[in-house]
Amino acid sequence: MKASDSARLPAGTTIPPERFSADWLSRREWLDGHSRSHALTGLAADWLAARPGVDGDPHGIVDLGCGSGSNLRFLAPRLPGPQRWRLVDHDPALLALARRHGATLRDASGARLAIEASCRDLSPVDDDLLAGADLVVASALFDLVSRSWAESLVAACAARHQALLFTLSVDGDWAFLDAAGKRLEDVEDIAVRALFQAHQRRDKGLGPALGGEAPTVLAAAMADAGYRVERAATPWHLAAGEDALLPLAEQLLQGWHDAALAQAPEEQTLLQRWHARRRAGLAAGALGLTVGHCDLLALPPLSAGGA
Ligand SMILES: C[S@@+](CC[C@H](N)C(=O)[O-])C[C@H]1O[C@@H](n2cnc3c(N)ncnc32)[C@H](O)[C@@H]1O
Known about the structure:
By secondary structure, this protein is an alpha/beta fold. It has helices spanning 22-35, 38-50, 70-75, 92-102, 127-130, 147-159, 187-200, 214-224, 246-263, 268-283, and strands at residues 59-64, 83-89, 114-119, 135-139, 163-177, 183-184, 228-233, 236-238, 288-299. The longest helix has 18 residues, at 246-263. S-adenosylmethionine is lined by residues 18, 20, 25, 65-67, 70-71, 89-91, 94, 121-122, 139-141, 144, 205-206.
């Protein structure tokens, strides 16, 4: 199936939901925390503390596509309390993990969090998804969603004067690094990356997916809605020879290979050869990896009231 094929699916065809393993999410969590913008987190914390209408009421925070709770674990201790979280995901097993971990977390002043879990699809964008939130957050989500879903989310949040912190959105770029950390790519890497990017744009359940376009589309929608937008590049860097990160690097490489193969099965021989060559380079400590990501913070105009 080509990236554009989802537009030609027979009426009534349902796209199977995109699933993520708890193992993969936990493997990437350290690197996510290391890569994210602490400056944008700090600005979000300042905005929450000073938001209009705050009077000892809990800060309402919604985490869209929360998975096993990585975003919650990063943000809760860095944001002011009291905090009332709603975790949203369609995967009940991941949601249960997030909720369990959340019970042990504390906010920036050491108080427990109030946590509610909502097992549902991210569509429709409605009151059940967003009501009561001052800050709407999501991490590693927006490559999966469509332009129309992203734009309707931003418009719905703007109408509720909610701030947005959307972190670790992939920008579609990845490359190998040599031992000195310099970007290294040949024609096969470029061809595989193009296949991977086409695969990223397949429908993941919310319409033709944005893939690496997500940061640009989101930033434009936020600016159009009148938000003050702050953006930070937050790439993953896995240096050559970092043994602790090798399992993650190998899993990424496997994922790129599998996506490219699904996109172009006729290229199996080339893809197998490329995979074996790059895997050997990673295992020998001769190659590292970089994966482009972006964090976005959108703050409502100063005159806006609370949600
Ligand atoms: C890449 S994971 C990121 C998880 C988490 N935010 C993190 O940073 O570790 C994407 C998450 O979005 C959820 N998700 C994807 N599509 C969804 C949909 N249509 N409705 C609800 N959840 C969805 C997945 O179940 C998964 O937990």
